[in-house]
Amino acid sequence: MRKLILFLSLVFPAGFIFAQDPNQDTGDGPVTMNNLAGLLRTQLTITPAWSVTAKSGNNSGSIAGGRTNVYLHGTVEYYFDERFSMRGDGYYFVNKMKTPGGMKNNHTLEVGGSWHLWKGSMIDPFIGLGAGISYVQIQPADITNGAGLVLKNYAYPAHLDPVWGPRAGVNFFSAKVFHFFVEAQYVMGSYRPSEGPILSLNEVRVSAGLGWNWVLLHKEKTLRPTI
Amino acid sequence: MKRFFVFLLVLAALPAFAQSRTSNRNPGGQLSIGVRSTVSLFSGAGGAGNGIGGQFRLRFYDFLNSEWFADYLNSSVGTLGTRTDYHIGWSVMFYLPGTVQKYKHLKPIPYFLAGHCFDYTRIQGNNPFYETNSMASRWSSAVQMGIGMHIPLTPKIDFSASAQYMYHLGEEVFVETRTAVNGDQYLYVYKGAESGLEGHLLLTGSLNIRIADLWHDKKGALGNGPHVDPDDSQQQQ
To answer: Which residues of B touch A167 (CB under 8 A)?
Structure first.
């Protein structure tokens, strides 16, 4: 009899553990997104970029010279509704070239918007457009004129150059606090220093990684529990 | 006696301001801010260029809006130099009757625009061996006219595209490509003796968000987009 009482006193209370409504967000379990309105999305990742040889003025060439540039890329994006979001992006150029005339600085700040193709889905494909400004400078190099005079190690000035470009990508909102993303942007612009060559800044920047979700508004609509 | 008639005229005009604020349901007073990207074409002393800038819009009436902008533009002068333009100005935008009250998602709202601009231009050759007469700058004033359209993305946000021709009145800056005896090419830049006209075509795309209703229209305070019918918006709430 004692064993029966002990058994019942242990088993019955334990049954209540499974009695919770799985559709309620207790704040403990995994929760995914099903409505992106009101969501603030942030990310910081490492972005490789491949330059595209393009014509700039009458000059053909690109600032990266066929090399893979690497940026630290950060994004802050706010979803005004399920279709449209505004975003700000910052690119910090990491792998400076050491060779004369190589790229020294190419940091970018951008503002843009994205149009989200699917509603009510954890998979969020989007297209967008961004425009901003780049701080660009190349390494000092020798300049020779037609008479053979050489300006040794000439320091080219830095310059602020407007850039813009279309963007496309996909976000995957798998959980409440983070998401995966992959996107590509074709950045277009020209480096036009006060002294020195005009060069194309055109390149394709590809970003992928893990981002963070911050649900600021419409929490009840934005979150949907899965367990 | 004349003063008395003037006084009577002023008195007669007063009822125009006597309407109740609650009956004002137009989007007047709406303030928006935005960022813009501009492509400059057909510039007199430079090739195509691009720029970045910002703007804010203050809407006066249903059919009348204003845009206050600042732009920074870069253009190439061949491969030998750079032209830099700083614009600061304003445009008044006129909407077609019947197009502004009927909001529809993604439906373009066309408009005409015209305005004034002040411009600082600097043209500079980029060959460090030839720095004499390689740079000139000027201030100018300009007028611009064009067409554009808003594409409402949400009730508060729109993407706008416009094409406008801007005419600058200021000291003329001339650019010549010269060849030195050693074969080097360089830019020779100089100012003319007289003022002259110079124009360029500007294609602008901007993203704008409405942030305030300065008139505090009770029916429409921030509840209505720039092109939203106030009644529709009220019903949605």
So the answer is: none
